[in-house]
């Protein structure tokens, strides 16, 4: 097999990603609002729940790890739960009831008023995330969604919707990383500054 030089393709991928990231600066106000919602919840002794499918499931775990462990500095752990990690719950709910309920049942069991639910869905139309948001709204839980440019049906159920201006799943997910890293950084900075 001949060696191929894919460098031009790779360069274009970086360029396309950079363009989407620059366009995503338009989401700064929504990202700031999301950070404040999370900060208010954590400072009042509440918690953050996070969910998503596929790559967004991995992102939900990433966010939880940044909050529980650390982002940049050593500080006390912050209450965050990724709803994508408990395989016994996920498979029993999916098998006994419906895959669309894998997150909503966990929200019903774990969430309290003034908690925050973060949902990641590039389409904004992931049914299991939408069902979780519906339960959250009934429980008095604040909702933050990370989506692509349309926001999908999830936008209507969100207190804050961060709509990345792209329809390309990979580019949306890359911008989601910057958005939630910014949120984690703000939370950590404020928590540390206030000596909490």
Name a few traits of the molecule:
single chain, 196 residues, alpha/beta, Rossmann fold, five-stranded parallel β-sheet, 7 helices
Describe the structure.
Strand 3, helix 6 (127-139) and strand 4 form a beta-alpha-beta unit. It contains seven helices and five strands, in the order ααβαβααβαββα. Helix 2 crosses helix 7, helix 3 runs parallel beside helix 7 (169-193) and helix 5 (104-110) packs parallel to helix 6 (127-139). It is α/β, with parallel strands linked by helices. The protein has helices at 7-23, 28-43, 55-68, 87-96, 104-110, 127-139, 169-193, and strands at 48-52, 80-82, 116-120, 142-147, 160-163. It has a five-stranded parallel beta sheet, sandwiched between helices. It has one domain: 3-Layer(aba) Sandwich (Rossmann fold), CATH 3.40.50. The mean pLDDT is 96.
SSE order, as H and E?
HHEHEHHEHEEH
Please tell me how large the radius of gyration is.
Answer: 17 Å
Shape: globular
Distance between the termini: 59 Å
Helix content: 40-55%
The overall average pLDDT, rounded, is 96
Characterize the main sheet: 5 strands, parallel
**CATH level-1 class:** Alpha Beta
Number of domains: 1
The CATH superfamily is identified as Glucose-6-phosphate isomerase like protein, domain 1
Uncertain ranges? none
Oligomeric state, counting identical vs distinct chains: single chain
**What CATH architecture do you see?**
3-Layer(aba) Sandwich
DSSP summary, beta strand count: 5
Structural class: alpha/beta
Spatial arrangement of strands, main beta sheet? 2-1-3-4-5
Count of separate DSSP helical elements: 7
CATH topology: Rossmann fold
Beta content: 5-15%
């Amino acid at each position: 097999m001949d060696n191929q030089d894919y460098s031009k393709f790779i360069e274009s991928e970086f360029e396309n990603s950079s363009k989407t990231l620059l366009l995503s600066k338009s989401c700064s106000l929504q990202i700031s609002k999301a950070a404040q919602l999370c900060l208010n919840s954590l400072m009042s002794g509440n918690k953050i729940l996070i969910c998503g499918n596929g790559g967004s499931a991995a992102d939900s775990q990433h966010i939880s790890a940044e909050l529980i462990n650390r982002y940049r500095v050593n500080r006390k752990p912050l209450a965050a739960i990724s709803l994508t990690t408990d395989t016994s719950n996920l498979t029993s709910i999916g098998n006994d009831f419906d895959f669309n309920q894998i997150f909503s049942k966990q929200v019903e069991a774990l969430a309290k008023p003034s908690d925050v639910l973060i949902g990641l869905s590039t389409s904004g139309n992931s049914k299991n995330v939408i069902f979780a948001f519906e339960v959250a709204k009934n429980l008095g839980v604040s909702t933050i969604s990370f989506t692509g440019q349309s926001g999908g049906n999830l936008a209507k159920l969100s207190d804050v919707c961060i709509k990345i201006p792209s329809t390309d799943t990979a580019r949306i997910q890359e911008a989601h990383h910057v958005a939630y890293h910014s949120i984690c950084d703000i939370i950590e900075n404020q928590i540390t500054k206030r000596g909490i």
